[in-house]
UniProtKB/TrEMBL annotation:
InterPro entries: AB_hydrolase_1, AB_hydrolase_fold, AB_hydrolase_sf, Epox_hydrolase-like. The keyword Disulfide bond does not apply. This is Alpha/beta fold hydrolase. One of its GO terms (molecular function) is hydrolase activity. Pfam families: Abhydrolase_6. Keywords: Hydrolase. Residues 293-314 are annotated as: Disordered. Coiled coil: none annotated. Residues 24-282 form the AB hydrolase-1 domain.
């Protein structure tokens, strides 16, 4: 457990060699936990002597981390939390950040609130099934009028849930909600393990977390922040993502210089679980690129032919 400045305790998992040339930090989505990334962690571990150090943590109010205060259930706070995690567990060396859904928005907040630190440390960026424009493009796969009604109901319900405290009575209703969640979160394919992990993450999230983060998520606007970044980046989205549809990823890729956009056919919102191979491949590519750049940066600069190695003092 890692205790943040305000006393909230984060459950942090660290794997990989301590002397790895690159550190990967994984940030999960709303009402999920670090297990979202289990297959990507396995893929990184299979890189052999080139494997990175991997940090995966449960966001405040999620998974095995402690509950958050309602006033701290914001993306801005999550960006500050990420900064604290990196300072504690990756105090030096290049970092590759990967974020799914709310985790991607957390990365954007980290970049916005800690720009100098972000620029100095982050050498690769993977944004999966996320948005930089709040709920601008979210239609839940419905016609516009029905989507507007659903959003209004969701917003009202989130406000009520946010004030309901850190308990989890919804766990008993999850089996009944399974078909609806299957439709909302997944595309053509949904392995039993993927659905079980997704349902488990939702069951662990207290009502305060389910409702409390909704306002901040819906209001975030960070395209300008992305436009100021200059680093290798990959943006992935499922063609059937009903929460953060391809339009979200397209605007991110258009704003983020040099970003590579991949739309995965037939996939939904839970890409790390639904299409793990594609997500893992993109992450491994970024890690390899960051490692090559780190090695290049460590090489001594050769003096120009005909120029002295040093100048004697007068």
């Amino acid at each position: 457990m890692f205790t943040l400045a305000d006393g909230v305790r984060l459950h942090v998992s660290v794997t990989g060699p301590t002397d790895a040339p690159v550190t990967v930090v994984l940030s999960h989505g709303w009402c999920q936990d670090r297990r979202t990334w289990r297959q990507q962690i396995a893929a990184l571990g299979e890189m052999g002597h080139k494997a990175p150090r991997v940090i995966a943590y449960d966001t405040r109010g999620h998974g095995r981390s402690s509950a958050t205060h309602l006033r701290s259930a914001t993306l801005a706070q999550l960006g500050d939390d990420m900064a604290e995690v990196i300072r504690r567990y990756a105090p030096a060396g290049p970092v590759v950040l990967a974020g799914h859904s709310m985790g991607g928005m957390t990365i954007m907040e980290y970049a916005h609130r800690h720009p100098a630190e972000f620029t100095d440390r982050v050498k690769g960026l993977l944004l999966v099934s996320t948005t930089a424009e709040g709920h601008t493009h979210t239609r839940y796969g419905l016609p516009d009028q029905l989507a507007a009604l659903m959003r209004a109901g969701e917003t009202l319900g989130a406000g009520l849930l946010a004030r309901s405290g850190a308990w989890r009575p919804h766990r008993v209703m999850l089996p009944a909600l399974r078909p609806a969640l299957r439709w909302l979160l997944f595309g053509d394919e949904c392995a039993d393990e993927a659905m079980t992990l997704t349902m488990g993450g939702l069951g662990r999230a207290p009502l305060r977390s389910i409702g409390g983060f909704r306002e901040s998520i819906g209001a975030q606007l960070r395209l300008d922040t992305l436009a100021g970044l200059d680093l290798p980046a990959a943006v992935l989205v499922g063609s059937r993502d009903r929460l953060t549809p391809p339009a979200c990823a397209e605007s991110i890729a258009a704003a983020l210089p040099g970003a590579e956009l991949t739309v995965v056919p037939g996939a939904g919102h839970m890409l790390p679980l639904e299409r793990p191979a594609e997500v893992s491949a993109a992450l491994v590519t970024l890690v390899r690129r960051a490692a090559r750049q780190a090695k290049k940066d460590r090489r001594p600069v050769k003096p120009t032919i005909g120029q002295p190695h040093c100048r004697k003092a007068a």
